[in-house]
């Protein structure tokens, strides 16, 4: 394919991604579903399609997506909900893959257990992107958001490790459960070690990578370093990337500068935005090729394979959640009091099982041929089953998730979160005042005028936080009024910040303020606006 053709395709793809995201924001529909449909629509039009190279997908696409998600996750929140997270991200994934594998051996002619486990591993992990997007806009409680996010990180590592084991088994003498379990545990443990090593190596670079651009360069290459190190020693590169991201995301506030964190966050949001969009478009374009490969199978093979895959994906998750919540609660009162989910939370989590980019990208990493040079068994059928599972969950569960959250009335209180944030702000100012008093006592050379000026600024900020806290707490006494007051205050602050920007622009346009000074002051307003909820 000519370079100008590829460039034209990339420009067109970015335009489609932007248009689809814009549509998704205004309609509430999951962008992943719309992008996949757009890719399918393009695939039936005349013109070139860019094929997905399976060897590049896992190495270039998945590491940055997983690393970015890990950076935004909470290691402490995952640890607090570790029992449920492990149940969903490890045990549920393994049992889903095994059940699909057994179903293939029973109902699909010519299928081996290893081939069935391969497609099962690909479709087992839900993609949290669509569910989290709806969850946050729907006001889903923080605990459920944490569970979806934690599950989405760890289940990818579990599934892709299991997939690699199944592929090796399918290329060899068959699938051995004890051997697969041993390989899985060794690969997972090695991935954790490799990720920890890379994370602490990055921490050691903090003195060298202080400048924001340097820190961003290190951040962008980190997931690839973690993945390459793990793959070189034949352990889970995916788990290494996740562990690296969790550790760095947890420790970065201690050593990364504020400017670096803001810039790194913006860079990774752009990477996610483009990578996820382009991958969904590219995968949608593979439909003609996938359908072409199905010609070698009859309906008696295709229908049972699709039915087993989709049936297990849709039905086994709610069954697993019900069993894992009711059985331990019946045995242990401690579990029932501390860890159990309510019935409404179980329903919401059951429906937050949309499959997406990881499933499709993973199944495309299955090689075209075995090590002996023979075609990989049922590969085209496995890819088609994965695509159907993704489309069914994206369109079925993804499009109805927001409606379900409203019906269940699972809403987090924004006012309660605002109270907590302002309490933390007040505590941080108190800590600063204590440190200033220590400087006044322990550093005789410190200028008392500067100390007094800094103390007054801190007291001014503390009074502002305390006033906001009093307003929020008084609103909480009358229920929903607190949320309305908080939203109205946020709207007023957005309006006043916009007025300040307009005034700065007038000064700049009149020649009274140089562009460099304008950018500095505008950045200050941007930081202040970034602390507010979106309009």
From TrEMBL:
It comes from Actinoplanes sandaracinus. Pfam families: Na_H_Exchanger. The lineage of its organism: Bacteria, Bacillati, Actinomycetota, Actinomycetes, Micromonosporales. Belongs to the monovalent cation:proton antiporter 1 (CPA1) transporter (TC 2.A.36) family. This is Na+/H+ antiporter. Na(+)/H(+) antiporter that extrudes sodium in exchange for external protons. The chain crosses the membrane at residues 6-24, 56-78, 85-109, 180-201, 273-291, 303-325, 346-369, 381-405. Residues 15-406 form the Cation/H+ exchanger transmembrane domain. The keyword Membrane applies.
């Amino acid at each position: 394919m000519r370079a100008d053709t590829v460039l034209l395709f990339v420009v067109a793809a970015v335009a489609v991604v932007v248009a689809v995201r814009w549509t998704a924001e205004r309609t509430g529909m999951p962008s992943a579903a719309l992008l996949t449909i757009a890719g399918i629509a393009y695939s039936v039009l005349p013109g070139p399609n860019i094929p997905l190279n399976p060897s590049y997908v896992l190495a270039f696409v998945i590491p940055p997506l997983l690393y970015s998600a890990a950076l935004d996750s909470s290691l402490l929140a995952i640890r607090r909900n570790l029992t449920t997270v492990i149940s969903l991200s490890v045990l549920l994934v393994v049992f889903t893959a095994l059940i699909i594998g057994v179903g293939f051996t029973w109902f699909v002619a010519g299928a081996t257990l290893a081939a069935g486990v391969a497609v099962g591993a690909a479709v087992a992990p839900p993609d949290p992107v669509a569910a989290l997007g709806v969850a946050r806009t729907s006001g889903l409680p923080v605990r459920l958001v944490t569970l979806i996010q934690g599950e989405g990180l760890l289940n990818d590592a579990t599934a892709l490790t299991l997939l690699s084991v199944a592929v090796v088994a399918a290329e060899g003498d068959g699938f051995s459960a004890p051997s697969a379990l041993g390989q899985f545990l060794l690969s997972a443990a090695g991935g954790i070690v490799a990720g920890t090593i890379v994370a602490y190596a990055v921490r050691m670079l903090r003195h060298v990578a202080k400048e924001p651009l340097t820190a961003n360069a290190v951040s962008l290459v980190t997931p690839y370093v973690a993945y390459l190190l793990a793959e070189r020693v034949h352990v889970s590169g995916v788990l290494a990337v996740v562990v690296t991201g969790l550790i760095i995301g947890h420790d970065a506030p201690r050593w990364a500068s504020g400017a670096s964190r803001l810039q790194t966050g913006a860079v990774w949001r752009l990477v996610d935005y483009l990578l996820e969009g382009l991958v969904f478009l590219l995968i949608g374009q593979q439909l003609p090729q996938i359908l072409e490969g199905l010609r070698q199978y009859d309906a008696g093979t295709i229908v049972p394979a699709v039915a087993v895959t989709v049936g297990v994906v849709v039905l086994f998750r709610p069954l697993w959640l019900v069993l894992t919540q009711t059985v331990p609660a019946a045995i242990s009162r401690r579990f029932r009091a501390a860890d159990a989910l309510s019935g409404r939370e179980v329903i919401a989590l059951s429906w937050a099982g949309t499959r997406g980019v990881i499933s499709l990208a993973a199944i495309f990493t299955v090689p075209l041929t075995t090590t002996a040079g023979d075609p990989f068994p049922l590969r085209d059928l496995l890819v088609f089953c994965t695509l159907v599972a993704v489309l069914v969950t994206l369109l079925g569960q993804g499009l109805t998730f927001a409606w379900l959250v409203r019906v269940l009335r699972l809403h987090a209180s924004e006012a309660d979160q605002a109270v907590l944030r302002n309490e933390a702000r007040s505590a941080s100012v108190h800590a600063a005042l204590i440190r200033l008093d220590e400087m006044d006592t322990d550093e005789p050379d410190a200028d008392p005028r500067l100390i007094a000026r800094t103390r007054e600024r801190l007291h001014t900020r503390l009074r502002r936080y305390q006033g906001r806290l009093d307003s929020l707490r008084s609103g909480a006494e009358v229920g929903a009024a607190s949320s309305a007051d908080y939203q109205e205050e946020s709207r007023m602050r957005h309006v006043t910040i916009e007025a300040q920007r307009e005034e700065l622009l007038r000064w700049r346009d009149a020649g009274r303020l140089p562009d460099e000074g304008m950018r500095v002051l505008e950045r200050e307003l941007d930081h202040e606006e970034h602390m507010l909820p979106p309009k």
